[in-house]
Amino acid sequence: MMDKLFDTLTFIFLLIVLILASSCLSEVDKKIYPIEQSLEIQESSGLKFEGPSITDGSQFNFKRELSGAYMLVIKDHFKNVISKSILDINPGNNVLSFYTNAINDGDYTIEFVDELGNVVESQKITIQ
Amino acid sequence: MRKLLKLLFLLPLIALSQSSGDGADISLEYLGTTLDEFKPLSKVQVNDTIVLALDINNLDSSHDITYTHIDLMYHTSAFARVGTPTWKTPSSAQNSLFTWNNVGFTPSSNYDVNDMWAQWNHGSYATSSGWNVDHWQSISTTPFGDDTYGHFVELKFQVKDAGSAHDYTKNIYATMARVADNTGNTEYVYPFGEVRAHPDQFISHSPLEDLDSSLSINIDTNDNVDPTKLKVVIKEDGAVVATLPLDASGDVTITDYVISSSKTYTAEITWNSNDSYKTSYLDNAFTISDVAYLLTETEGGVGHGNAGGVITNGISALNGDLSDPKNQLTPQDAYKMLTHVLGTDIFENNYYEKTFYAAKADDFDSYSMSDFVSGNSLNTKLIDTLSPDWSQAQNKWEYKTGILGDVNLNYTSAQSSSQEQAQVTRQTAAENKSGVATSKASFVSKIEGDKLIVEISTDDDNLSATQFKVKFDNTRLAFNEVVFDTGNLTTNFAFAGDDIINLGSINQQQDAIKKASKYIIKFDKTNGVTSPAGLVSINNFDAANKNGELVIFEFE
Questions:
Q1: Which residues in chain A touch residue B475, judged by CB atoms under 8 angstroms apart?
Q2: Is the Cβ–Cβ distance between B192 and B118 less than 8 Å?
Q3: Is the dihedral of CA B318, B319, B320, B322 positive or negative?
Q4: Same domain, residue pair B76 and B185
Q5: Is residue B426 part of a domain?
Q6: Element (H or E) spanning B37, and its range?
Q7: Residues B533-556, buried b or exposed e (16+ Cβ, 10 A)?
Q8: Which of B48, B153, B348, B456 has the smallest count of CB within 10 Å of its CB?
Q9: Tell me, what's the pLDDT at B17?
Q10: B484 & B339 share domain
Q11: Contacts of A98 in chain B (CB under 8 A)
């Protein structure tokens, strides 16, 4: 009777270990592929959004060779600056979220400006 | 069983519309007027000429129609048949018409009134003053009645004024008919119950007065006021008869709704948009530069209480005259406006009703500063009584609009004679603003620990007032505080709405606010925010120079 109980407990324990191991494996998977394919940039630097239209919380990838502080500038349809933010950028891929709740729907130009004031990336997007 | 199924299938048709089902339906169709084929019957006036058709719809697949006659009765006090009828029968058909004058029809009560062949046999005609009966008949070797040739016959009637006591019920009335098929060896006559007036047997329209004037309203608004956000409510003797949105030019045609010379009509200008648009638009009209302009007039400018010293436009003065005594611009007006901009809603949320006004365009255009200081009031209203001159081919009511608090007239209609003083303009998605100069500013946000810091900087030694509306993502940020660095003699203000921080400064000492002023807004951010991108934006901004004139910020 005790042997049977022990066997059952052993089976349950092994099952839990197996489940935990498999969930760790998916973590490892994520680390191997840190960005979604749609945001991958083949070149050494660049800017990529999930698509031409973005919604609240959409991600973008700003890839640079060197680290540094960059200014993200949002300009409206009439080229007025409506928002400007400082981003600390690491070498390689920088996958970040873009929030839209504070911005009216419309067409915008997104610019990234380096510390010397040069526009290093620029892209038109629609916020919905 | 098949008969039962057929009966069940036809029952709804029979019950609902009294169609012949499998015989011939005859209908009196209204086809508009000779001048407007789309004019609804309800809008037909005295002296219009209406076009009617007698139509046959053969539903009997076993028989053709080669013979038809239909009697159409009409009251000669109300209608006069005019012109030449247009037969739509085969070219070889023999068409004929004869008329009985002063003859009226009495249907047989033993049969349905729309059972036209039964009524031909059992209804009766008798002398009746004022009624005519036309007998429309066609016989052909080629079948008709299946829409190959269109309607059976088309007729025209001129609409007459029969007097207010006249009863227009069934004044044009298809009384009886006979339909037959002569293609076989013997004539087949469509039997009782199978020649039905359906769907329309008569017309009972009481014509409108002969008021052939084109009526319209135009509301000329400032470019910052979208006229499609307004609508006009037309009332007839106090009852709403139409609610009509303005088009993009501020025009609306009301001809179809003002239709009587003996009734009283009013037009009321109301909003045609949601409250959030209304509130933000009115709020944008009444800003710190308006206050600065009025303060310059009443407190520190060359006028110093001398009306017209700085503000020379009568409409501008009217918009700033918010306190007693009326028709004088006083410091009390300026401080009441300042109170509003600093965050106290002096209109108690009834923005539209208490601030938005319209006036007849001619009155508005001619209103001057002299009128203002002399106590001549501008007749402003949102409801006007419309009194058309019916002898004119066209009546057009033209209005212009203004908003109290809009002293620098960025949201108020332009007067026809006003001179353009602005030197620069700014176009954004929200508005088009005109000012005398531009001024550089910056707006930068950055995440610092668990906070988002926004820094607004100006760099101008000629600014007397500033105002910024900063929109923030209230799902991720909570407003914490604003830190001002604007100089010792400056009055600062900030108040937080649901998702907007309204902040700014004003110097009331005839001096400028500090040249390198800073406004630092601190927000607490939620966990999981990975970047500052899009968390805040400049929603609107405003500024004035030391003369109280509007200055436009350019953010770099």
A1: 101
A2: yes
A3: positive
A4: yes
A5: no
A6: none
A7: bbbbbbbbbbbbbbbbbbbbbebe
A8: B348
A9: 46
A10: no
A11: 531, 533-534
Domain of B181 in residue numbering reads as 17-203
b/e sequence B16-30, b meaning 16+ C-beta within 10 Å: eebbbbebbbbbbeb
Rounded to a whole number of angstroms, the distance from the CA of A128 to the nearest CA of chain B is 13
How many A-B residue pairs are in contact by the CB < 8 A criterion?
87
Which pTM does this prediction carry?
0.67
Q: Which residues in chain A are closer than 8 Å to B426, comparing Cβ atoms?
A: 80
The backbone torsions φ and ψ at residue B320, rounded to the nearest 5 degrees and listed phi first, read -95, -5
- Grade residue B11 by pLDDT with cuts at 50, 70 and 90: very low
Shortest Cα distance from A38 to chain B (angstroms)? 19
Same domain flag for B440 and B392: no
What does the block give as tokens for B364?
A: 């508005």
Residues B172 and B27 in one domain: yes
In a domain, B23, yes or no: yes
Q: Which residue on chain A is closest to B541 by alpha carbon? A: A82
Answer yes or no: do B444 and A82 touch at CB < 8 A: no
Q: List helix spans (H) across B95-236.
A: 116-122
**pLDDT tens profile B267-286:** 999 888 776 666 676 778 88
Of B429, B535, B556, Cβ closest to residue A77? B429
The amino acid sitting at B1 is M
Residue with tokens 């600056």: A81
pLDDT digits over B187-200, tens only? 999 999 999 999 99
Residue B7's pLDDT is 41
Contact B177, B72 (CB under 8 A): no
Looking at this protein, which amino acid is placed at residue A61? N
Q: Are B438 and A80 in contact (CB under 8 A)?
A: no
Identify the pLDDT of residue B521: 97
Partners of A84 on chain B (C-beta within 8 Å) are 442-445, 555
Find which of A35, A75, A79, A99 to mutate to test the B interface (most B CBs within 10 Å of its CB).
A99
Instruction: Name the DSSP letter for residue B553.
Output: E
Contact B446 A86 (CB under 8 A): yes
**Domain spanning A39-127, CATH class:** mainly beta
Helix ranges (H only) for B93-240 are 116-122
Nearest to A100 among B443, B532, B534 (CB): B534
Tokens of B272: 């045609």
Who among B426, B444, B476 is closest to A86 (CB)?
B444
Domain boundary among B419, B454, B484: B419
- B-chain CB neighbours of A100 within 8 Å are 534
B47 in any annotated domain: yes
Cβ distance of B473 and A102 shorter than 8 Å: yes
| Chain A residues touching chain B at CB-CB below 8 Å | 60, 71-72, 74, 76-78, 80-87, 96-104, 106
Read off the pLDDT of residues B218-262 as tens digits, 9 standing for 90 and up: 999 998 888 888 999 999 999 999 999 999 889 999 998 999 999
Count how many domains chain B has: 3
End of a domain among B393, B419, B445? B419
Q: So where are chain A's domains?
A: 1-33, 39-127
Q: Is B471 on the interface with A (CB under 8 A)?
A: yes
